[in-house]
Design goal:
Number of helices: 26
Strand content: 5-15%
Number of strands: 12
Distance between the termini: 48 Å
Largest sheet: 7 strands, mixed
Radius of gyration: 35 Å
Shape: flat
């Protein structure tokens, strides 16, 4: 039964992916199954793509939460197919790859084969023939292993199409004819129809119009029993019209052109539904009128037979009048309802258009800021990297000041770009709050220590007080807490030269499992005027132009603090007076954590005899030079390649201790190259190097098979820490 199910799915999905069936068991067992089914129902029956995507994503969310690995893969597979059907090719590729990474490759299934098959079709659409062939071959290999030999003919159909696209017409014809001969079962009529059609396309391409007509007619004959997929008929009729015209037979060309036009201009089901509804309303109205006429006749008959005819007559007329008015009222209301519905539909269309325009404008703004920050990171990586290397080479005293200034300027510019990207991310709703174990006191003391130089420059006294009753280890998001504290402390110190800053953390509520903390950062600096306090949390907002020129900054720090706290279900509160300082307070709820023993990776290679070799996949020559030099300074050998294709071939023939993979490469991207490498090498660590943009995050990159992510421009100590950690693991 399962085998027949899979063959039926392959048959239909080979052209349109419209009748998708993924689950090997139709019975609904839990919420994941339910949302998969309702997503499929909205796609196939209701033709509502937006709801199909919504419910499929809900199924994926349930599968993640319940750690249902197989159903998670099925969810990604269903979502990929939906995106393929609406021609969102990149999103389809992304979800097919996610599905492949989730499925167990040691136990091959039809679902894994379908994912490879779908990827092949996606890359065929992108005209990446070589990559498409790789995935079609993987699918074919799985079907052979599963003894699904009938399904292999569907892949042979794709092989024929690929050879046709390569202009290898003889090979393509041979494959397509073999497909037709091997599929004798009527169940595969759709596949045979497509094979005949592709043979006709080959004959057209070679100028054999009469032979092309024969194949198109065979395709039309094979498709004669297909009553649902009009797109195939449209293609056949259109090409028959063109072929007859090329063969100097205008009469037959016109016949098929008319058939093509009739299908294109057919009346929609929605029109029939509305017409049917109006007919029902009219029938009900006619029945009401007949009832009134019958009542009138009965009342007149009673007039002749009863002595109290006058009273009955008056009552009858009154009743008839009331019923007439009610009927007329119903009729008018129905007409008004129909008119109102039409107006509402028009207004909804207008609102939908305006909403789409607003979303496009917001998306364009986000993509512009993301692109700008991304493009600035690449040259900035060169500036900061070269500066770091020059400082390591013991420069002259006269050169040291220039290099220190260059290092400061690069760090300032990087912080500015990071702030722009961070506010953009927060506004895009793509940020998730983590819940991991961390040491609160250690985190706060490290942050405070990092400000020592800034405190000395401003001659500021910083007073740190942490309630001793607070648990040392908590569970929360230490990265976002650090962003909040760093931004608030930075402002407090910057605007309180020769003054004081107080940072206090209090325990305000505690249970066996949770603890609620009150954070207060107070200064006695220049303060914020009352009229400026409402707008101070807006992006790019500062107290005045003079403040900006005197103290510098982007005006994004408080906006970032506000948005992060909103993500963490909290609020920032401000109390300030001009010339008398400012106080910022907020509260956060944490789970109680537990003490952890952390092991740090060594920063040098201990065994010098076993020299490490790293493959660097990077297309930018300056970045190649900087990264290679930094690695060589630590005694690590480096092999450099410029593209994803070269990386794949190198890993096949050589053994490396680590791969540094740039994400944005020409032709094949770093994520695509990683996906291919993971099909034959699951051992070698792969670290992503990326000038990360809005649409990228660590979770997405890791889902392609990468082990870790280093952001450009990378901070040298962090770069070395990650590299040595994975080199040590690989030993």
């Amino acid at each position: 039964m399962i085998k027949q199910f899979a063959i039926l799915f392959l048959l239909v999905s080979s052209l349109s992916y419209s009748q998708s069936v993924y689950k090997e068991v139709a019975k609904i067992n839990d919420s994941t199954d339910y949302y998969l089914e309702i997503g499929l129902f909205n796609k196939e029956e209701k033709k509502s793509i937006s709801k199909a995507i919504l419910f499929t994503e809900k199924a994926i969310s349930f599968a993640k939460n319940k750690q249902q690995k197989t159903k998670l893969g099925i969810g990604y597979l269903q979502l990929a197919t939906i995106y393929f059907d609406i021609e969102k090719n990149e999103l389809a590729i992304d979800n097919y790859i996610r599905a492949i990474n989730v499925f167990d490759k040691k136990n091959p299934t039809t679902n894994l084969a379908l994912a490879y098959y779908g990827l092949g079709k996606c890359y065929l659409k992108k005209n990446k023939i070589a990559v498409a062939e790789i995935y079609f071959e993987k699918a074919a290999s799985l079907y052979e292993e599963l003894n699904f030999f009938e399904a292999i003919e569907l892949i042979n159909l794709q092989r024929g199409i690929i050879n046709k696209e390569k202009k290898q017409f003889a090979i393509a014809s041979e494959i397509l004819k073999s497909v037709i001969e091997n599929l004798s079962d009527d169940t595969f009529a759709t596949t045979k129809t497509e094979a005949y059609f592709q043979l006709g396309e080959i004959e057209m391409a070679t100028g054999k119009f009469t032979s092309a007509i024969d194949y198109y007619n065979l395709a039309n004959s094979s498709n004669s029993n297909n009553k649902t997929d009009f797109s195939i008929s449209k293609r056949i009729f259109k090409q028959l019209s063109v072929a007859y015209e090329k063969a100097n037979n205008p009469k037959q060309s016109l016949v098929f052109l008319k058939k093509y036009s009739r299908i294109t201009d057919s009346i929609t089901n929605h029109f029939y539904s509305n017409a049917s509804e109006n007919m029902v309303d009219k029938t009900q109205f006619d029945e009401q009128l007949k009832k009134i006429e019958q009542l009138d006749k009965e009342k007149k008959s009673q007039q002749k037979t009863l002595r109290f005819s006058k009273l009955i007559f008056v009552l009858s007329i009154a009743l008839i009048s009331i019923l007439s008015l009610l009927s007329f009222s119903l009729y008018k209301n129905n007409k008004i309802r129909i008119t109102s519905n039409k107006l509402l539909e028009e207004k909804n269309k207008e609102l939908t258009i305006e909403k789409e325009k607003a979303e496009q404008a917001s998306k364009a703004r986000a993509e512009f800021l993301s692109t700008v920050s991304h493009e600035l990171r690449t040259p900035l990586n060169a500036i900061n990297g070269i500066t770091y290397l020059l400082l390591q080479e013991k420069p002259k005293a006269s050169q040291l000041n220039y290099l220190k200034s260059l290092e400061f300027s690069g760090s300032y510019l990087l912080n500015f770009i990071n702030d722009i990207l961070e506010i953009n991310r927060l506004e895009s709703d793509k940020i998730q709050v983590e819940k991991i174990n961390f040491n609160l006191k250690e985190l706060i003391e490290n942050i405070s220590t990092s400000f020592n130089e800034f405190i000395q420059e401003n001659n500021t006294k910083c007073h740190l007080t942490i309630d001793p009753s607070i648990s040392e280890y908590l569970k929360g998001d230490p990265t976002k807490l650090s962003q909040i504290v760093i931004n608030l402390l930075n402002n407090a110190i910057k605007f309180s030269k020769n003054g004081d800053v107080w940072f206090t953390i209090k325990n305000i509520e505690e249970s066996d499992e949770t603890i609620k903390l009150h954070f207060e950062i107070k200064d006695n600096g220049i303060g914020i005027p009352l009229e400026k306090q409402e707008a101070i949390f807006d992006s790019f907002s500062q107290g005045s132009v003079e403040i900006n020129r005197t103290y510098g900054g982007t005006g994004l720090g408080l906006s970032i603090v506000k948005k992060i706290l909103e993500l963490m279900d909290s609020t920032i509160h401000l109390s300030s007076e001009s010339g008398k300082g400012s106080t910022f307070t907020f509260e956060l709820l944490f789970d109680k954590g537990q003490k952890e023993v952390l092991k740090s990776a060594p920063m040098t290679i201990v065994n010098s005899e076993n020299k490490k070799v790293i493959l660097l996949v990077e297309d930018n020559k300056i970045n190649q030079m900087i990264t290679q030099k930094m690695l060589e300074n630590k005694g690590i050998s480096c092999v450099i390649v410029d593209s994803g294709e070269e990386a794949i071939e190198n890993v096949k023939t050589n053994q490396y201790d680590l791969i540094l993979m740039d994400v944005h490469l020409p032709s094949m991207s770093g994520t695509e190259a990683t996906t291919v490498i993971r099909t034959f090498d699951n051992q070698t660590p792969i670290i992503a190097l990326t000038a990360i943009s809005l649409n990228e995050n660590k979770e997405t990159l890791l889902s392609f098979g990468m082990n870790e992510v280093i952001t450009k421009p990378f901070e040298p100590d962090h770069f070395y820490s990650v590299v040595f950690e994975y080199l040590a693991k690989n030993e």
